UniProtKB/TrEMBL annotation:
One of its GO terms (biological process) is spliceosomal tri-snRNP complex assembly. The keyword Endoplasmic reticulum does not apply. This is Protein AAR2 homolog. Residues 167-223 are annotated as: Disordered.
Amino acid sequence: MAVANITEETIEMDQELAKKLFVEGACFVVLDVPLGTEFGIDLKSWETAERFKGVKMIPPGLHFIYYSGTNRHGDVTPRAGFMHIFKRSEILVRKWDSEKEEISDKELPEETVSRIQSDIRNLDPCLGVYPYDMYGRWLKLNSYISQELLSQLVPLSGQIRSALEYTASPSTPVTERKRRSRPSTAEEREDDLLPQLSATPGTELRLTPYPSQSYPDGASPQEITRHSLDPTYTLDSLLTSYTKPSDLLGELQFCFICFLTGHCLEALDQWKRLVRLLCSCQAAVCRRPQLYSQFLDVLELHLSEIPEDFLVDIVASVNLVYVSLRELFRTMQTDSEVDGRLRSKAERFQQRLTDKFEWDFEDLDRDEDDEAPVIVEL
């Protein structure tokens, strides 16, 4: 993502579009942001200039605002941010919290907000212009994220952080009983000296948990083996957690955005799990052609947005995405019940991946574990 100096950057825009966004576009006003703070919205970030007080002409809809400040020791703080669905002509006002070194989510006094809203034209020179040249890409990246789904996934705190906050937890009663039941080992005594850390309640992403069981109750050993080879049952169980099947793709998009722009590894782990699950299913590919057609579109866009230095690792080694896609393409190529249009779409996607990354999808029946380089997870 590009980094420039906000409020000093010129954005080229069609005059008619500029007039429309000037009237209908939202504004995000943030007070007292320190000079040189990294500030971003969606796919672009800047270093704040001295007069910076926010962003104007934001198209209505979902946007991700993020930042990374500098603490009192001069160290850059971990990236943090929040998602907000802007309404037409909305003016959202926040303030920088110098103690926490972040944008506060506390509501400002009503008179302060009213004064800023009535004086928004005078603030205009201090507001950076939304980077509209990236808006089309941004829309595609969040096309399945509804307001309802977003409210289910974001942390209760509202802040999405690249580094989880942890708090020390007291020892559990089970641990205490184990200590009393037998002498402690040297390793356990060393562990006792370390604080028991857990994610601070309300700060973690509320991602959809995987089903605790990968096969139905009463399944025979043969059925358990079948469900382990084809996790369609797991996918079907997971889909019951959503209002509609496409919400799974919305969570996939949410996780990718949190990783791409929020640097959140927790989200990347979930993204990898969902990609792996979707690619591993066999019966689901035949039964849910629409879901898989949409999945191919989402995944192709994600692979096109990965930063260039990250792509180098992908091209140099066989990775989770490549191995998973080989399995998916194998199913689509060999199962006669796969929808013909879906199979053709997958073949075109497969060719574009080969052209771009030089990924080899020949001999899909080959055992990749035996012949490929060492697998490196994405």
